[in-house]
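Example A, followed by Example B.
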Amino acid sequence: MHESIDPMADALRATPKHCGDLAMSGFDDLPQRLCARLSVITAALGAACLAGCMVGPDFTRPEDELKAAQLTPRQEHSGDPRASTAAVPMQWWQLFNDALLTELLARTLKGNLDLQLAAERIEQSRARLGIAASQLLPTVGANASYAREALSEHGKFAALGAPTDPSNFWQLGFDASWEIDLWGRARRSREGAQAMVVASVYDREAARVALAAEVARTYLQLRGTQAQLDIARQNQVVAERTLALAESRERNGVATRFETSSARAQLATVKAMLPELAQRRNAQMNALALLMGEQPRTLDAQLRQAMPLPSLPARIPLGVASELAQRRPDILRAEAQLHAATAAIGVAKADFYPRIGLKGRIGVEAFDSGDLTSWDSRMFSVGPTVYLPIFQGGRLMQRLALNESRQKNAALAYRQTVLQAWHEVDNALDAWAAQRRQHDELLVSYQQNKEALGAAERGYQQGAADYLSVLTAQLNLLASQTRLNTSATNATLTVVNLYKSLGGGWDPEQAR
C-alpha cells in the first residue's frame, strides 16, 4: 500500500495510514492465542506486507516550471542574430578558441581541492546508503564465553542442597536477528539515503559548473588587467614624448613653466597606475593557481606575458528553456534533497507501528570443554519479537512534524532554486546583449579620441594650439581606452555568466 503526494503542495500533514486492519491501538487487545501462533504466521505476514505495504508519501517529481519560458534577449536587444537554440556545449569555454584557457580548465578540474572534497562527500553518502540498506538484511554474530563460578555455601541454593564446589561453564554459538520491514521503515530509510547519494553527485557537478565559470572569469579578468597595463604603458610613452616636447619649447622660449609642469604631472599620473595594475595582475595569477590547487606564483612564467582578450564566440548556443531544469545541477540537487525529505516522512510514520522481528540462537554449552563436541550439548532458541510504542512523551509525533516541516522547506528551496535559475538566465542574456551594444559605441569613442589626440599634438608642435588641448586629448584618450578595455572584458564575462546560468560545464552522462 502506498500513498501518493505532491511535494509542491502547501499542506503535507496527513493522518498516518494503516496496512490492513492493524491499527496502532488494535494491538492492545491481541488474544493470547495470537501470541502463541505469532512465530508461525510472522514469516507469511512479512512476505505479504513486504510486497507493497509502506507508510508515508511517495515522491513525485515537481512540475517543470520552465516549460513556457523563452531563452531570448529582451526586446530592446533582440536584434543580435548570434543566439541559437542549439544544445548548450558541455565545454562551453572552447567557444573562445583560447588554447591556454582550455588547458588551465583541464588542469583545474583535475587538481581543484573543492572538487576532491565534493568527491569524498559522495563516497560518504554511498557509505551511509550501505548502512541504511543493511537494515533490510538479517544480522548474524558468533559468541563464545567461559566462566568459572561457585555458589555461596550460605546461599539459598546451598540450603536446598545445590553443590557449592567451583565449576566451569562453556558456551559457543551463533546469534541471528531480523526485523521484518512490515511498514517500510527500512525501505524508506534506504530510499532517502539513495536520494542523498544523488544529491551529493549533483552537488559535485554544481561545484564543477561554478569552478569552470570562476576559472574562466579570473582568466579573462587577468587578460583585461594585462591589456589595461599595456594601455597605461602606451600612455606613458605618449606622456614622455609630450614632456620632452614641452621642455624643448620651454628652452626655446615658446612655452611656459606651466606647460612643462603639467606635462610632468600627467606623466607621473600615468606611471602611478602601473604598480596597482601589476599588483592586480599578480593577485589574479595567484587566484588561478589557488583554483588549480597549486602554490603561489606557480603560473607566473606561463601567464605573465600579456595576451589579448579572447574573441567573443560567433554563435551563442542557448538550448531550450524546457531543458534548463535538467541542465542545471543545482536544480537536480534540490530535487534529490526534496526526495530525501519526503522519504524521511515515511520513516517517521513507520515508527508509530509495531516492529516485528525474528530472533534465534544456536550453539553448544557444557560444564566441561570436552563435552562441547557432544550432540547432547546443543541448545537453540528461535521466536518472534514484537516492539510496540505505547508512550513516548510526544517524541514520535514531534519527529513526524519535524520531518514534514523539513519536507516543506525542501519543496520551497526547490522552487526558490528554479526561480533563481530563471532570473540568472534572464539577467545574463540581458547583460550579454547590452554589453555588445555598449562595446560598439565605446569603440567609436576610442577611435575619435585617438584622432583628436593626433590633431592636438600636431597643432601643439606647430605652435597652432596650446598644451591644454593636448592634455585634454590625452586624458580623453586614456579614459576611452580604459572604458573600451573594461567593456571588452565585461563582454567576455557576460558569456561566462550566461553559460554558468545555463548549467554548462558538466556531463550529465558521466554524473549518473
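Example B, a separate protein, is given below in the same form.
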Amino acid sequence: MSMEALTGYPRENGRKGIRNLVAVLAAADNVNPLARHLAARNPGTVCLPASYGRGQMGRDFAISLRAMAGLAAHPNVASCLIVSFEPESSERVAKLARNSGRQVTSMSFLETGGLQECLDRGSKILRGMQKAASLLQRVPLAVSELTIGLECGGSDTTSGLFGNPALGAFTDWIVDHGGTAIFSEPVECLGGEELLRRRAVSAQAAERLVSTVRAYDELAREQGIDLAGTNPTPDNMAGGLTSIEEKSLGALAKTGSRPIMGVIGYAEAAPGPGVWMMDAPAAAVENVTALAAGGAQCVCFVTGSGNPTGHPVSPTIKISANPRTVERMSAHLDVDLSDMLRGHMNVLQGAEAIGAAIAKVIGGEPSAAERLDYLETNISRIGPSV
C-alpha cells in the first residue's frame, strides 16, 4: 500500500491538519443563531452549533466542554471563534482549547452588546482568521502523524463480510506505520468481549475494555431493554443481520488485528499511537462528533445501506461493498468495494482502495459528504439538565 508525499497544515501545538478551516463555535444553544449568522455572513466559515444550553451537570457537562474544546482545537481548524451569551461559557471552552496548545478567540453576546454589534465584531475577527489561514503552506505529513476514526453504520451482511475487513486491513497498515486508529460504539462490541480480551495490550486494558462494553448492556437493562440475541435497528435487520452479536463481530472487523491499547473517554485524544476504543454511543452523528472532537483528522465510515452522515470538521470517507447501495447512492460514497462481493477484489485490494481514497482527501479533494454539504455535528447527552 502506498500513501506517499502526504501533506498537511502545521499547527502551533505540533499537530497537522488535512483541512485549513476557520470555524465559529457556539458554547451554548442560546447563541446558535449568532453562530449561524456569522457563518452565513462570512462564506467559507464552518458553523459548529451547540447541542445543548446551560444547566448541564456532572458527566454531561464535562463531555460537552471537552467535545467543544476538541472541535475548536482540532488540527483541521486553523482558527476558531467561540461565541457565548455570557463570557464565562465561552472562556471555559477556550481555556480547555488553549490547554491543548491552540490559540482561540472568544466573544460574549452580553459584553459586545447585541446581535448587530456581535455580527460586526465577529465578522472582523473571522475575516482576519481567514486571511491568516490563507497564508499557511502545506508541509510534509507522515502516516505516523495521522489519527483515523473508524465507524460503521447502516450495517448489513456486506459490512461484516467485506467492508469492515477491508477497513481492518487498512487499520493494521496505519498502525504498523506508527499511526493511530480510534473505534467506538462499545454497545456494538457485545458478544465480542473475548476478542477484545485477546487483543488487549495488557490485563488492565482487557478489564477496562470489557467493563466499558458491559456498562452499555447494563444501561439498556435499566431501561427494560435486553440487547442479547436481538438487533435494535430495522435497517440492520433489513440488511440481513440477525443479532447484536452478529453485528458486533462484523463491527470489530474494522479495527484490524493489532493490539488494542485501552479505552479513552468521549472526545478524548488518544494518548499514543495504536488502536484505541472510545467510550461513545452508537448513534452515527454523535459518534462521528466524538471521534472528530478526539482529534481524528478523518473518519472512515463503512455503510451497507448508505448512511449519509458526514462531519464538518473531520472529512468522513464513505465505504460500501453493497452493489445495490453503490448503484443507488453512488453520490454519497467515496470507496466502491462491491467487487469484493462479486469475487473480483480481495481484502488487501479493498484496503488499498480505501488508502487511495484517503490520500486524495488528505490532498484536498472533498469527500462525498463535503461535496453534498451533508454535514452535521451533535454532542451526546447522558442525563437531564437543571
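On Example B: The longest helix spans residues 115-134.
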